Amino acid sequence: MPTEPRTASKARPAPGALLLCRAEPESVAPVARLLREDMLLAPAGGEWSVLVPEGRPWLDGDEPVDRVLTGWATALAVGAPWPVLALWWDADRAGYTLAAGFRRPVGYVWLTNGTPAGEDEAMRTFAARLGLDPVLDVQSLDELTRPDPVADARARMRGLIAVLTRAGMALPDGLAPGESADHLQSAARNQPHIRLTELSGWRDTFRAELDVVEGRTLAALFPGAGGTQIRALALAQITLGLPLTAWGLRRRSGGWTAAGALLLGHGLLGLAYAFTQPRD
Q1: What share of the chain is helix, strand, coil (3-state, %, to 5)?
Q2: Which residues of 197-209 are buried (b: 16+ CB within 10 A; e: fewer)?
Q3: Contact 248/255 with Cβ under 8 angstroms?
Q4: CA-CA-CA-CA dihedral for 74, 96, 11, 255, to nearest 10
C-alpha cells in the first residue's frame, strides 16, 4: 500500500492566538488596554512582549480567529511606534499577520497539513519590516513557502518562531502555536505578567488614553515634530478611523471596530497634544 506523503496530526488544533509586540510590556500595556479585551501581557525577550487573549470572541460569534487577530494587530500598530505580529491557528489553517503603523498588514497562511497558501512576496515584506537579516533570515523564511511532505502547520509556525528568535524574541515556556487557549492562558499565568482587565466605561477609557499621552506614547511617535506635523497625522488618523469604525460596526467585526475606534481616539488625542507643541 502507498504511504501517506504527509504526517497527519494526532488532533486538529482548536482555535488559538498570540499577539507579539516589539516593545517591552511597560510600553505595550497602556495601548493594549484601549482594545478593551481581557488579555495577559508577558515579556517575550529583551525587546518583545506577548499578549495572550483570555476571551475567545472567535468561539462566541461567526468571526474567524484570523480576522479578529488582524483587527487587533492593526489597532495596536496604528497607535504605537512598534510593529505587532499576530499568530493564529484553527482546525483548518494557521498563519500570521504583521501590522506596522499605517502600512497595509502583511500575512501568510498554511493549511493544517502544512501546505503553503500564501504569496512568497509576503515573506520578504515581513522580513524587511522587522529588519531581519536579508540573507540568512530571508532564506529560512523562503523555506517555509516551499512544499515539505513532513511539515504540518504547527511545524511551519515553529520555523517562523525560530527566525524571530534571532531578532531577540523568546516566547515563555508553554506559549507555543497550536496549543489550546486554556493551555496558553495557564502558561502565561505562570510567568511574570500584567492582566489587562476590561475597562468598565467611558471614564476609564478616557483615563487610559490620558495615561498613553502622559506616558509619552504620542511623543515617541513624533520625536522632534512640531504641532503642525502632529496635527496633520492626527487628522489623517481621524479620517481613516471614521469609515473603518463604521465598516467594522456594519460587519459586526470587533477587531476592525477596535482598530477604527483606536484610530479615532489617537487622532483626537493627537489634536489635543498638538496644541501643547510649538508651531513649526
Answers
A1: 50, 15, 40
A2: eebeeeeebeebb
A3: yes
A4: 10
- Domain coordinates in residue numbering, the chain: 16-194, 218-274
Q: Kindly state the helix (H) or strand (E) to which residue 99 belongs, with its residue range.
A: strand 93-99
pLDDT at 202: 39
pLDDT score at 260 = 73
Which residue, 79, 107, 19, is CA-closest to 259? 79
pLDDT class of 113 with cuts at 50, 70, 90: very high
Asked whether the predicted pLDDT for residue 222 surpasses 90, the reply is: no
Q: Which of 127, 55, 65, 132 is nearest to 94 (CA)?
A: 65
Report whether pLDDT(263) > 90.
no
For 41-92, the pLDDT digits (tens) are 999 998 999 999 987 788 776 788 998 899 899 888 876 889 999 999 999 9
Q: Tell me the longest C-alpha to C-alpha distance in the chain.
A: 77
Q: Are 253 and 71 in contact (CB under 8 A)?
A: yes
How far is residue 83's CA from residue 100's CA, in Å, rounded to a whole number?
A: 4
Q: Does the pLDDT value for residue 227 go beyond 90?
A: no
Crossing angle of helices 25-32 and 65-78, rounded to 10°: 110
In contact, 31 and 208? CB cutoff 8 Å = no
C-alpha to C-alpha distances, 25 to 55, 97, 189, nearest whole angstrom: 20, 20, 15
Q: Rounded CA gap, 192 and 195, in Å?
A: 10
CA distance 20 to 83: 8
pLDDT for 42: 94
Report DSSP state, residue 231. H
> What residues contact residue 267 under an 8 Å CB cut-off, 6+ apart?
234, 235, 236, 237, 238, 239, 241
